[in-house]
Amino acid sequence: MAENHSIQKDCCPMKTKLKSPLPSLDRLLACAEAAARAGGAHALKHAHRRSVIAETFAHDVKLKLDRECQDVAERTIRKHFPRAAILGEEDTVAPVAADVLWIIDPIDGTVNYFHGLPLWCCSVAVQVRECTAAGAVYAPVLDECYTAHRERSSTCNGRPLAVSATHRLKDAVILTGLNKQNDLLDRSIALFHLLSRKTQKLRIMGSAALDICQVAAGRADAFFESGIYLWDAAAAALIVEQAGGRAEIMATGPHHQLRIIASNGRLHAPLRRLIL
Ligand code: IPD
Ligand code: CA
Prior knowledge:
This protein is of the alpha+beta class. It is built from 7 helices and 15 strands.
């Protein structure tokens, strides 16, 4: 599981031989966007119930609305593709193996949402043989919807996105997250310490998917985190790449756990040298 790979750059779902024909990328994207908007809208509409907890962990919560929003997103996907294979953050059982896999993070930034902070989103990606073909990230409080498919530039609310031109770490704003797993926390804090000295600013905003979209939008220059999951990053990684940046995903453990470096491209190599 320790191999390094970009699930993005070198794959082309349209050229992959599949058992049944692939719907067009436009159709896949329209469905991903509809599902992300529906899941996100449900969370926003029911924000008065945001403190109803399903399960509590040491540094995290699972909300009743996490499950509900995943169900809403799933129903939207199944309206378009009734037999879709779906992997959602809230699932406990793996989906059946399929060429085309839909990946949902119903509320990315659950802790932000729970506390009433505005930075959270619903993320939906569709992969063809492990390569993301299309993805959408919808942040309801900001009313921003980020989208991309493999043959189209990324957009936010229909406007094209482009990564920043920052090329020196000392001028860069870099976003990250702090994983609380014991084996990763010390390493993440040491990296935070190192990078705060080498960059203009380091920020922790609390929603990996939305953070990566900020890199696509040129508002931040890079994002990195260890110990996140495929549903946190699948859609946003494509969005940053189709905005001219680079997303490098490294599988690190079971259950789709990974490490990601997403950047404007220019800062990728210097950042990578410090992180890996
Ligand atoms: C979390 C957020 C957070 C990141 C965590 C993720 P969740 O997702 O993306 O920013 O630091 O690693 O697990 O649990 O809110 O869906
Ligand atoms: Ca998440």
